[in-house]
Amino acid sequence: MKILFISLGCDKNLVDTEVMLGILSKEGFEFTDDETQADVIVVNTCCFINDAKEESINTLLEMAEYKKTGNCKALIAAGCLAQRYKQEIQEEIQEVDAILGTTSIDSILEAVNASLKGEKTQFLENVDRLPEHKVNRVVTTGGYYAHLKIAEGCDKHCTYCIIPKIRGNYRSVPMEELIGEATALAEQGVKELILVAQETTLYGVDLYGKKSLPTLLKELCKIRGIDWIRIQYCYPEEITDELIETIKSEPKICHYLDLPIQHANDQVLKRMGRRTDKEQLISIVEKLRKEIPDIAIRTTLITGFPGETQEQHEELMGFIDDMEFDRLGVFTYSPEEDTPAALMAEQIDEEVKQDRRAELMELQQEIVFDREDNMLGRVLTVLIEGKVVDENAYVGRTYKDAPNVDGYIFINTDEELVSGNFVKVKVTGAVEYDLIGEIADEFTK
Q1: Model pTM score
Q2: Stretch (H or E) spanning 25
Q3: Which residues, given as ranges, of the chain have pLDDT below 70?
Q4: By C-alpha distance, which of 172, 30, 7, 185 is closest to 100?
């Protein structure tokens, strides 16, 4: 019995997919990446923004065809779209045999078995439940890095975001479970842990009565085999002195922070339901850079939010120019059903959104190019990810670069390097968002 998994959306969704793969692997199922050979197809869907929703629907429709032309006997829709639009999916895509909600991933075995018996089923738990996943995940990222989801849900209720309704309130995963999961990942050869959640900075408040991310980080640093720990999705208003000190003092923690700010104009931030203003954002960025001078800060922005004026857009441009973030992504605002922002007046024309996004990205590109020039001659530790086909070159990442969202460094060398190893690389050049380098010495670990 062969099963095909398609994981759409964010890294947190990918962790859910890997948990489901682990559950089925333990039961002896085989996996395939060939749609025509799959007996069961599972699509782990996303619906965070409209483009993600369309991709999920189109993927389900495409996979439904294999029930007619391939071996497929069962089609399962899992994840956010399945949670949010369960009724619509079963009515409009009748080839779908089972619906698996966001908190029901631990029911994947039951969903597969029921679907193979020809039963139409829904597995939809309360959105505030925390799924059981005390099973070794099947890591799909290549083996050298893995994401560790430390919490589920969100309490922030930003006006543009549907996540609290489909993922529930904020629930931290107990620390002992995370330590066990991270230890198992290290035993599988994982060298880099990437901590993810809707918000990592509030970890532990619900379980331990205080922000416990620094404590968790110190425990993870003790795990043998883990060399890098990267933190993503840190809300700026929740960053504490204790967290900054932990990042400074623990050598395994990358000097890298993902700090989603969304905008810099106070009126726009207020309409978004954010908890910070422009001065607070400037203050936290300056503090991070003062305390950790080599820190790489990534951020994300939303452009074209309802009511955003040209002047507010230009203020955001000036803010980005002043702050000079190391990494930056920009989303155009997407109105989502059942969110307050979708009902706001002064919705922005799509063409204006795209133009503003292009301006922000062009500005950021100039900033990145300037910062890359400053990297010339520096020696960095690089995690090797693979060899460039037909060239005497390898591709890797520095501490400044998270996989799939940031850049790479290409190392020209006649030496044979091993994927998953760390090497010292001297930066010799840059091409767009990527660096070029050469081996600095014999150091590996």
Answers
A1: 0.93
A2: helix 11-26
A3: 133-134, 442-445
A4: 7
